[in-house]
From TrEMBL:
Any matching Pfam family: Methyltransf_16
Protein name: Uncharacterized protein
Domain of life: Eukaryota
Record-linked InterPro entries: Methyltransf_16, SAM-dependent_MTases_sf
């Protein structure tokens, strides 16, 4: 299951002028499988009717995140070449714009401060948006657990050149920097997330050099030199890095192939020996099937994946980043990924 929207403002329509009752909206959300079951072979009329219904829900309905994902899944299932309805194309456009334009309300942000016992109680402060829809604006279980793991085992990052993928608010990267990494480059892909990352980097004056930049997995996996200037810096940083870290990036099955391509480029895009390069991946087990897709994809690319710490291992460790998580911390596993030896 992908991280869920927990923003009550977007699901409770009582504060808006909403033409639907809450139960109608709940029914609409529950019927995703029904809608998708009826997608294959849908006529132009049916496509338009689907688009019109979603349009009606758009301004006052269930979360936009849910509606966007429904539209994308509908079109994926239909097959792009079978889209005949102009209304449906327009809706897809709206969904894509939405994905990149949700500007968080600054009043919905807050700062959380943690002190790190293994770092002489040094403090870290990060800005989060706990009620915003964007998954990149809060701290997830896997990010917190990986950060705690690094605090216990700073040898993984000390004097290493580190890149983080899908860094979100940057907690794990900041901890890596606090644990004496020689350089940390944290990456993500939306404008709002990168602005928040930059803010969090500046808020914490760490000794290690830490910076952030744009790295979208699909674009990066298919990147040819100079095809996208925004990716140039990330290419250079990935080539210099010897440790790649990533937390809670395995939840959308469609994104797994490009994520693994990014892993593969990390192992191959450098003069350094593959052996000196390692990936630490923290993943929350929501659906075993999703993780199995990752394992198959890694195997196909010759990347070995082994558990380095599981819930039993760190259940006893001190809780450094206590947040109100949806998933128990014990559901997070930490894996080490290396290029296989044939
Ligand atoms: C569930 S959040 C995890 C954030 C953080 N690592 C943590 O554990 O708190 C997933 C992160 O992956 C990023 N992400 C999702 N799809 C991506 C893509 N295609 N390219 C780059 N980043 C992506 C999101 O923006 C988000 O920051």
């Amino acid at each position: 299951m992908a991280p869920q929207n927990t923003n009550p403002d977007t699901t409770d329509c009582s504060q808006h002028e909403c033409p639907f009752t809450v139960s109608q909206l709940v029914a609409a959300m529950a019927s995703e499988n029904d809608i998708l079951d009826r997608t294959t072979g849908a006529s132009e009329e049916e496509q338009t009717s689907f688009a019109d219904t979603i349009q009606q829900y758009w301004e006052a309905g269930p979360s936009k995140r849910f509606l966007c994902s429904l539209v994308r899944n509908y079109i994926r299932q239909l097959g792009e070449h079978n889209v005949q309805s102009e209304a449906l194309w327009n809706l897809l456009l709206l969904a894509l714009q939405q994905r990149h334009s949700e500007i968080p309300d600054p009043h919905q942000s807050c700062y959380v401060t943690f002190s790190m016992p293994t770092q002489q109680q040094k403090q870290l402060t990060v800005r989060i948006y706990p009620y915003h829809n964007d998954v990149a604006l809060r701290i997830w279980e896997a990010g917190a657990v990986l950060a705690e793991f690094l605090l216990q085992h700073p040898e993984w990052v000390a004097h290493q050149t580190v890149v983080e993928l899908g860094a979100g608010v940057g907690l794990t990267s900041l901890v890596a920097a606090a644990c004496s990494a020689s350089h940390v480059y944290c990456t993500d892909f939306t404008e709002v997330c990168l602005q928040n990352l930059q803010h969090n980097i500046e808020r914490n004056q760490l000794d290690c050099t830490i910076s952030c930049g744009y790295l979208e997995w699909e674009a990066f996996g298919n990147y040819q030199e100079a095809s996208d200037p925004r990716l140039q810096e990330s290419c250079e940083k990935i080539a210099q890095a010897n440790l790649l870290i990533a937390a809670d990036v395995v939840y959308d099955v469609c994104a797994i192939p490009s994520l693994v391509k990014t892993f593969q480029r990390f192992f191959s895009d450098s003069d350094k020996d593959d052996d000196s390069k390692t990936i630490l991946l923290a993943s929350t087990m929501r659906r075993r099937e999703t993780f199995a897709v990752l394992q198959d994809e890694l195997k196909a690319k010759g990347i070995d994946c082994n558990v380095v710490a599981d819930g039993d291992y760190y259940a006893e460790l001190p809780l450094v980043f206590p947040m109100n998580f949806v998933q128990p911390r014990k559901d997070v596993n930490i894996y080490v990924l290396k290029i296989g030896k044939g």
